[in-house]
Amino acid sequence: MIDIDEFAEGPEPAFLGSATVDQLAAMVLTLGMELSVLAARVAELEDRDPATDSQSASSLLTRLFANLRPSSGHSRPLVAERLDLAPRA
Amino acid sequence: MARIALDTVGDDDRRRIDYLTAMRKLWSTDVFGRLRAEFDALAEREGAPATLEEAGELVDRCPSYGWFGFLERGAQVLKWRVVNDVVERNWDALGDDLRPPHLSRAELDPDLELPAWYRDHDIHCQPGGVWGADASALVYEIGTQVLHVGRNRGLELHRRFTATFPGETYGRIVDMGSGFGKSTRPFKERYADADVIGIEFSGPCVRLAATRADDDGLEITFRQGDASATGLPDASTDVVTGTMVLHEMPPDVLRATFAETARILAPGGIVRFLEFTRTGDLFRDAVMEDHAWRQNEPFMPGLMEFDVERELAAVGLAGARWVPFDERTGAELPDGYPERAEWHLPWAVLEAHKPAAETVEEGAA
Ligand SMILES: C[S@@+](CC[C@H](N)C(=O)[O-])C[C@H]1O[C@@H](n2cnc3c(N)ncnc32)[C@H](O)[C@@H]1O
Hints:
The complex is a heterodimer of chains A (89) and B (365).
Chain A (H helix, E strand, L loop, with lengths): L3 H4 L11 H27 L5 H18 L6 H9 L6
Helix pairs in contact in A: 2-3
Chain B lengths: L10 H36 L5 H9 L4 H25 L1 H4 L10 E3 L8 H4 L14 H14 L8 H7 L9 E5 L8 H6 L4 E6 L2 H13 L5 E4 L12 E7 L7 H14 E12 L5 H13 L5 H6 L2 H7 L3 E7 L22 E7 L12
Parallel strand pairs in B: 1-4, 2-3, 2-5, 3-4, 5-6
Antiparallel strand pairs in B: 6-8, 7-8
The complex binds S-adenosylmethionine (SAM).
């Protein structure tokens, strides 16, 4: 069997500014995955259509993505600053 | 259709895989779309880039690019963790898929030394590669299912490629880098009378390929070996093909593989590899360049730079060219790629042929 940690060579590349931010984001996505499993189990217990399971995975992800992406919450000023697109006075 | 490893997983694991699939989808549509809009806005303000390097610099400055890159690699890393875990928990059932075949052949070479360029990085970020342990082939098989959603268990793309081959019949077809046989089986399906041979470095993949072919009632020879030194006789095959294998090779191995291809091809034989090439859309091409690094595919840019016309001519293969390929329909796109909103791999067929033996003129010495 493969022991993944045996193959880990140094830190993963950091895309979100620092390795710590990347690690945190990865944890949130993993949590999201486990939440989707739980949500599907609840759906089953409540006798809901299993087809909604996959929908719930993607709507969960849409919310996660919206909140996780680096510019969320201040996306306008950040994008505007970077692109210099702020409305001119 | 025979059982595949994914059929073995329980409901919770299936949901984890569904989640990963949904994540890829959002990344390739939403996040990619946002990135493109940012890039276009920058290009409009500052002038369109003229080179791949300039496009790369511009895309680096897009606010969503970090997020795009993180999600591409992060989804991949998470995928392998999940799939490794799935295979480990289901090993009692899955290990049996490496049993000796009865119809197909798995020709293993326990003395084969895998070269350092192949061993030294984990391709596609799969820990231990596709060869590190018996389980690797099964992990790889499930892993491909996460990316190729809803396409009839991943064989459809390969069947579409196989359908583009011009011949009605072939005597022998060699599939270089055959993996667990996904690219090889469609050839035997279409050309039932042909002698179909897969050449593959990874022993576990060779074993799994033979089982899967067996289960589908297909008689194929999978041989553990090196695409650049197959051991097949000179001029013994009509077709040399391969899917997603060339981009895994460094330039000197590429050269050796084309020389080997020319050697084993009979005069008049054809070469068709399904691969990736530049699209001419500098934004896409810049993202693709980085994709190679994010996915641990260090030799991909080298393939794209490779002068196929000159290099293949040098080993005696004529008419080498890239023909863009629409993976959704199987259409070849000689006029180039259509506009698409979502991220997609720039599929293309590298085609060439070995000229038919020149007829010796009467009276020639
Ligand atoms: C991305 S996989 C594609 C597998 C298969 N063709 C498919 O489409 O599913 C590439 C395969 O090529 C194999 N490979 C790479 N270089 C090779 C070489 N020089 N000789 C034999 N196999 C090679 C790898 O082990 C891997 O299984």
